[in-house]
């Protein structure tokens, strides 16, 4: 497609934004990430009250709906649902039920993530995903949130970015220093955690299908968009296999797979190649590459043919909202080209609705809405209205 051409989206196509509970709700005190923030202050800034969305979620949804978005992805926080082993909070279940109902009332399709990085502290302390009963415990949690899903959820993500969870296991254990990488390359996922997460996903996928008729179930993968220069083919292939492809293949048989793409990594004959000084970067240091979305969509479609795709995250950390609009325009052009080529993409969910807590740091700003760190006042950026116009017109550049 040329830049002057547009593509009309199907009426069922979702255009919305994503969030994650720990990053926006605040005071997630019974989670492992809260504990890590308190015990590693030299490495992690505290999340504190985050964006106070535990109490302001209606305002957040109002902003999304008023702009014209038709979908909102948010996560249910396991640590709130089951703060102690075997102790379930009915008030937390009711809270997330209200969120699902509130999304539907506003014309927003609720895309619900059931695990977005954080665990209850008791689960983490007992071995996390390497526990022998991990699937049983996660399945028990999913049974407790059945009323949330039955409130009107049609799309559920079991686990967000399992490949990043398997990498973070090595970082949290101290095996890998994330600031140094692994042998001059990217830290690779822990193989045992990889296997455990895939087994859990397959187990709970069948559980959810059996318990909730018509629910589309899948998981979302952090697409690293691994590429290479001459001489870097073997290193790139090994990295792509361990860090992405094994998780994509696990989505064979799913009802959908989530693509989460921001940039790319490049390998040369000497390992990972850092972008040169002439290469534009985002405010968090990633290569500015709108083309990454289309590249990730094509790779995913090749890995799991026949599985519908949803873009569950794509965005840019920047203080310049015009740059955000330019980046997203380029990303959507790539998505439009994929649709034109017959790739089955069902929706685009921008990361993120809010400027939020980015896993140890407040500096990255991915949001369509700015949040005052002291008053929690929300200020919609021009990019929110811009993306809402895309949703309303149902046209992609």
Task: Give a structural overview.
Keywords: Glycosidase, Hydrolase. It comes from Microbacterium horticulturae. This is Family 1 glycosylhydrolase. InterPro entries: GH, Glyco_hydro_1. The protein has 397 residues and is α/β, with parallel strands linked by helices. It has a single domain, classed as TIM Barrel. It is built from 14 helices and 15 strands. The strands form four sheets. An eight-stranded parallel barrel has the order 2-3-4-5-6-8-11-12, surrounded by eight helices. Helix 9 crosses helix 10. It is globular, with a radius of gyration of 20 Å.
| Number of H- or I-type helical stretches | 14
Strand element count: 15
Number of domains: 1
Largest sheet: 8 strands, parallel, barrel
Q: What would the principal axes of the Cα set say about the shape?
A: globular
Family: Belongs to the glycosyl hydrolase 1 family.
InterPro entries: GH (IPR017853), Glyco_hydro_1 (IPR001360)
Organism: Microbacterium horticulturae
Pfam families: Glyco_hydro_1 (PF00232)
């Amino acid at each position: 497609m040329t830049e002057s051409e547009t593509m009309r989206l199907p009426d069922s196509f979702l255009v919305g934004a994503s969030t994650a509970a720990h990053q926006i709700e605040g005071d997630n005190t019974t989670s492992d990430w809260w504990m890590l923030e308190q015990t590693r202050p030299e490495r992690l800034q505290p999340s504190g009250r985050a964006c106070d969305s535990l109490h302001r979620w209606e305002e957040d949804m109002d902003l999304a709906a008023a702009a014209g978005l038709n979908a909102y992805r948010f996560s249910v926080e396991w640590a709130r649902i089951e703060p102690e082993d075997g102790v379930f909070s009915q008030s937390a279940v009711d809270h997330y039920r209200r969120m699902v109902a509130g999304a539907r009332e506003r014309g927003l399709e609720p895309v619900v993530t059931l695990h977005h990085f954080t665990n209850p502290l008791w689960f983490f302390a007992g071995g996390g995903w390497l526990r022998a009963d991990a699937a049983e415990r996660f399945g028990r949690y999913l049974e407790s949130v059945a009323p949330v899903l039955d409130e009107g959820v049609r799309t559920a993500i079991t686990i967000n970015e399992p490949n990043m969870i398997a990498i973070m296991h090595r970082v949290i254990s101290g095996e890998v220093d994330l600031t140094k990488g692994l042998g001059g390359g990217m830290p690779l996922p822990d193989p045992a955690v990889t296997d455990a997460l895939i087994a859990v996903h397959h187990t709970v996928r069948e559980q959810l299908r059996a318990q909730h008729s018509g629910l589309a179930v899948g998981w979302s993968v952090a697409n690293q968009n691994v590429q290479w220069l001459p001489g870097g083919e073997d290193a790139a292939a090994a990295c792509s296999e361990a860090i992405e492809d094994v998780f994509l293949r696990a989505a064979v048989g799913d009802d959908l797979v989530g693509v989460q793409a921001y940039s790319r990594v490049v390998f040369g004959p000497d390992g990972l190649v850092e972008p040169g000084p002439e290469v534009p970067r985002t405010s968090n240091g990633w290569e500015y590459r709108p083309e990454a979305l289309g590249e990730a969509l094509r790779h995913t479609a090749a890995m799991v043919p026949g599985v519908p795709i949803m873009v569950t995250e794509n965005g840019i950390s920047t203080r310049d909202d015009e740059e955000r609009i330019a980046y997203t325009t380029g990303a959507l052009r790539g998505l439009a080209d994929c649709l034109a080529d017959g790739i089955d993409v069902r929706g685009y969910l921008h990361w993120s609705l809010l400027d939020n807590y980015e896993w140890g740091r407040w500096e990255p700003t991915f949001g369509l809405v700015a949040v005052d760190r002291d008053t929690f006042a929300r200020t919609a950026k021009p990019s929110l209205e811009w993306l809402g116009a895309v949703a309303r017109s149902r046209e992609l550049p």
